[in-house]
Amino acid sequence: MKYIIYGTNRVAKDFLYIFDNMEILYFTESRPSHAHFLGYPVHDLNYALQDTAYDQIILCDFDKTEKRAVLEQQNLSYGKDFIYEEDFFPLLDEIRIPNDRRIAVWGTGLVAKKLTDYNETWKTDCYIDTYKSEEQFCGIRVVTPDKIEEWKDYFVIIAVAKDQEILDYLRAQGLREKTDFANYQMILGTPSALLRRTIFDRAYYDLECRTMLNHLEVFYRGNTRCCCTTFVEQNLDNVLDKDVDALWHSNLHKVLCLSTENRTYTFCDKSMCPLFVAKKNGQGKVTDRPYRSMSDRPEVLAVGYDSSCNLSCVSCRKELRIATGKELENLSRITRKLKEEYLPACRFLILAGDGEVFASRTYQELYEDENSNAEFIRLLSNGTLFTPERWERFAQGKTGKIMLTVSIDAATKDTYERIRRNGNFEQLQKNMEFAASLRKEGRLRYFRMNFVVQAENYREMVPFVKWGERLGVDEVFFTKILNWGTYTEEEFARISMMEKDGITPKKELKEVLEDPVMRSSSIADLGTIQYSHREDETELVENYYMWELEKRGGKIFV
Q1: Rg of the Cα trace of the chain?
Q2: For the chain: N or C, fewer Cβ within 10 A?
Q3: Burial class (CB within 10 angstroms; exposed 0-12, middle 13-18, buried 19+) of 397
Q4: Does a cis peptide bond (omega within 30 degrees of 0) precede residue 345?
Q5: CA 279 to each of CA 100, 206, 226, 458, 503: distance values in angstroms, whole numbers, following the listed order
Q6: Bridge-based pairing state of the strands 420-421 and 312-313
């Protein structure tokens, strides 16, 4: 098929970034303002209408009303002579909602409401609720499962967080996943749904962050994301389901990359990522800057798929966790996959985002592998096992620059051992002195201490900074506590030092943030606490984690 694109705008630019193998003859406009667009010639619409070399016109724009009227005035019809850019979106999906079946959404809670808010492509026939309490939800009838007479007439979207019972029920009806039913995350996370969100997003931020083009995080059960799991919610595929090339060069990843290349940052949590401090939405702004493609393979690899740890911190878990049995077997499968397919191309290895790097057998297998000699290695640790013996074993044979980040969350023994259960503050202090000596000798290229701010410890932020200054660390980094499912909403409201909006600090925390030490220290960084976080004057970030470390560690990645 040969196409003409009607519209020289950002929507057309985004469209061609995703659909880059189409045969495009040229662009057209009713009143062209330039001769070329994206390397293609631009012709007057009258020229295009007299041309017989094309098969269809693709209409690209945020609002298509005017362009469609112009074409219909020339007796051209939608679907035959011209189509919309969004008509191509479903071609990206591995799972598609059938258009010849009724749609039933199972769930009538917050998840179902979220699904409804994002839905622009299908009509819901009914909602299913096992314990029906209302006759309607979002203006549509609600039924119990026993009221569905013929399940094959429906495609079911499961819109609840814990769905195992529903999955078992639907399978018992003879239904097949992806053919007859799917979880809401599969639907909201299809490339077509995500593309629809970002291509028609009119936001614009003066920031060039290339993280999604080169970064992969591997976390729980081998799931992946192409940025920090705190800053973006959308998963890519699982490392166990696809090989590295299929996962990395997927349509899904390409759409996420588009959201940073077009500067909408549609899928980024701007209330969490420090890059967006003081960054304003310049809605509608467009530039001629070319879009970049992703790297051949992920160059920055952050792993956090093993929760094994020697501590049970109150903000993270309620008991000690050490992987055994089938769980350990599955972790070993992930480890083998990373060693074979991901480590060879990795320049910057970050471990570990979950669990304790020196307590995990799988992480040890990973960092002792012959391919695990990246140019740059960052250790994320709780510090309690960072002894000279373990350091020497880890560092043996490593030629790259090694960085250490230690999560501590307290400055006194009592608070530390309440928050970081099973921890020994005296041992931690010795280990931090040892780490400080490695930094002075240059064997560590960077040394940072982390502090998760909560009601239990916020009064120790100032002494924590002073401790870091005595040790000579590069940075002390503060973040607001998040609820990883550890607390009820009421418990979290008491524990968090932020107001309900998640951005404004409570009065008591504001007083600490105004302390002269917090305001003047050269090593204190308020990270995700954006209220007093100093704006970083940067417009280009090659990778968030590299940028984050070089803010105070100097030129590390050279």
Answers
A1: 26
A2: C
A3: exposed
A4: no
A5: 45, 7, 22, 27, 15
A6: antiparallel
Rounded CA separation 142/95 (Å): 25
Alpha carbon distance 370, 171 (integer Å)? 44
Show the 3-state SS of 44-59.
EHHHHHHCCCCCEEEE
DSSP, collapsed to helix, strand or coil, labels residue 141 as strand
Residue 497 carries which DSSP code? S
For the chain, the distance separating the N- and C-terminal CA atoms, rounded to the nearest angstrom, is: 47
Cα–Cα dist 405/396, whole Å: 19
Task: Locate 485 and state its tokens.
Answer: 């499912």
Specify whether the CB–CB gap between 323 and 329 falls below 8 A.
no
Q: Which residues contact 70 (CB under 8 A, 6 or more apart)?
A: 30, 45
DSSP state at residue 339: I
- CA 296/CA 25 separation, integer angstroms: 29
Rounded to two decimals, the pTM is: 0.86
Q: How many whole angstroms separate alpha carbon 409 and alpha carbon 422? A: 14
Report the DSSP beta bridge partners of residue 154.
102
Q: What angle do CA 222, 227, 229 make, to 5 degrees?
A: 60
- Give the integer Cα–Cα distance in Å for 389 and 15: 55
d(CA 25, CA 40): 8
How is residue 353 written in tokens? 């985002």
Cβ atoms of 173 and 153 closer than 8 Å: no
Task: Tell me how far apart the alpha carbons of residues 284 and 394 are, in angstroms, rounded to a whole number.
Answer: 50
Contact (CB, 8 A) for 468 and 418:
no
| Collapsed DSSP state (helix, strand, coil) of residue 127 | strand
User: 397 phi and psi, to 5 degrees?
Assistant: 80, -5
Between the alpha carbon of residue 426 and those of residues 322, 429, 432, the distances in Å are: 24, 5, 10
Cα–Cα nearest to 105, from 93, 176, 90, 97: 97
Q: CA 47 to CA 44: how far, in whole Å?
A: 5
Tokens 């309620």 appear where?
318
Identity of the residue numbered 243: D
Record the tokens describing residue 238, joined without a space: 């699982």
- The tokens for 308 are 């094994």
pLDDT by residue for the chain (558 residues), tens only, comes to 999 999 999 999 999 999 999 999 999 999 999 999 999 999 999 999 999 999 999 999 999 999 999 999 999 999 999 999 999 999 999 888 888 999 999 999 888 988 888 766 789 999 999 988 889 999 999 999 999 999 999 999 999 877 889 999 999 999 998 899 998 878 888 899 899 999 999 999 989 999 999 999 999 889 999 999 989 989 999 999 999 999 999 999 999 999 999 999 999 999 889 888 778 888 766 667 899 999 999 999 999 999 999 998 877 777 888 999 999 999 999 999 999 999 999 999 999 999 999 999 999 999 999 878 899 999 999 999 999 999 999 999 899 999 999 999 999 999 999 999 999 999 999 999 999 999 999 999 999 999 999 999 999 999 999 999 999 999 999 999 988 767 788 889 999 999 988 889 999 999 999 999 999 999 999 988 866 656 666 778 999 999 999 989 999 998
* Secondary structure of residue 140 in the 3-state scheme: strand
